[in-house]
Write a structure and sequence with these properties.
about 90 residues; 4 helices; single chain
Length: about 90
């Protein structure tokens, strides 16, 4: 028995990409210290955050928000039309 079909897996992946795409940098990401603005390093910190996991996640979130904006609008519209027509 298969719990998730390919359609459900596709829906879940689109929902996750939508969740990343709507994260507000000013309201949410900057509050937890994940904003893209450079900060002064604390004692023992380093300025090279591009190689850290946190830096890579911030770059990934920024890239998803920039590159996937228009494709997500199209994909979400197609999913809504599919759900309305075929239920």
């Amino acid at each position: 028995m298969m719990l998730f079909g390919l359609g459900n897996l596709f829906y879940v992946s689109i929902l996750l990409v939508n969740a990343v795409a709507i994260l507000s940098e000013d309201r949410f990401l900057a509050r937890i210290g994940w904003g893209s603005t450079p900060t002064e390093p604390a004692f023992g910190g380093s300025r090279d955050e591009a190689s850290s996991v946190k830096g890579k996640l911030v770059n990934l979130i920024s890239s998803v928000r920039t590159l996937m904006r228009i494709p997500l609008i199209v994909i979400n519209t197609l999913i809504i039309v599919y759900a309305l027509v075929l239920g």
